[in-house]
From TrEMBL:
Compartments where located: Mitochondrion inner membrane
Pfam families: COX2, COX2_TM
Keyword Magnesium on entry: yes
Role description: Component of the cytochrome c oxidase, the last enzyme in the mitochondrial electron transport chain which drives oxidative phosphorylation. The respiratory chain contains 3 multisubunit complexes succinate dehydrogenase (complex II, CII), ubiquinol-cytochrome c oxidoreductase (cytochrome b-c1 complex, complex III, CIII) and cytochrome c oxidase (complex IV, CIV), that cooperate to transfer electrons derived from NADH and succinate to molecular oxygen, creating an electrochemical gradient over the inner membrane that drives transmembrane transport and the ATP synthase.
Example of a GO MF term: cytochrome-c oxidase activity
Residues of the Cytochrome oxidase subunit II copper A binding domain: 92-225
Taxonomy of the source species: Eukaryota, Metazoa, Ecdysozoa, Arthropoda, Hexapoda
Name of the protein in its database record: Cytochrome c oxidase subunit 2
GO BP of this protein: ATP synthesis coupled electron transport
Amino acid sequence: MATWLNLGLQDSASPLMEQLNFFYDHTMLILIMITILVGYLMTMMFFNKFTNRFLLHGQTVEVIWTILPAIVLMFIALPSLRLLYLLDEINDPAISLKTVGHQWYWSYEYSDFLNIEFDSYMTPLNELAINGFRLLDVDNRLILPMNNQIRILVSAADVLHSWTVPALGVKIDAMPGRLNQTNFLMNRPGLFFGQCSEICGANHSFMPIVIESVPTNFFIKWISNMN
Ligand code: CUA
């Protein structure tokens, strides 16, 4: 989860988020180079006395300063496109999970396991443990096995919501009348927090997501105690 002064992206907990992190760093580096170059050129424009009274056109330099930025942008566009297709790939999932956004909570269904289903509400402040995570913890957490491909099917019952878990690189809209699909793989155990990220009404900020990533045998133990 994000803590104080964490202004960039969170550490990845999935291979796709790792790729997103690499792409972010790559793009920021190009951005810094462009900013330095343009900044340098702009300051030099202010602090010199060059004049050219006979300047009417400069075809050559215009061709250069049109094509060069286009080439630079290709270095962002191509990796971006690669990631876009990588994120959409469904890699033979071991588990399918269904999640439905409501005003204002998420409900989950494990349809592979005798259709276990439950609602997941934010823990109210007066019930929060002393070391609990304010506005981020829920009463019923999603328990999922690590190192397994997990497919999530996302929909909504009332208005637009968005199922967003930054550490996993998952952000997918939950829309009424539509079933969206994405997938992820958690490569370490831990708690991964997320929040709704479509403005969905008065309590939009209060429908968090908590995933407990556990080893597969723990998950099997948990799921067999559910019914
Ligand atoms: Cu649901 Cu914002």
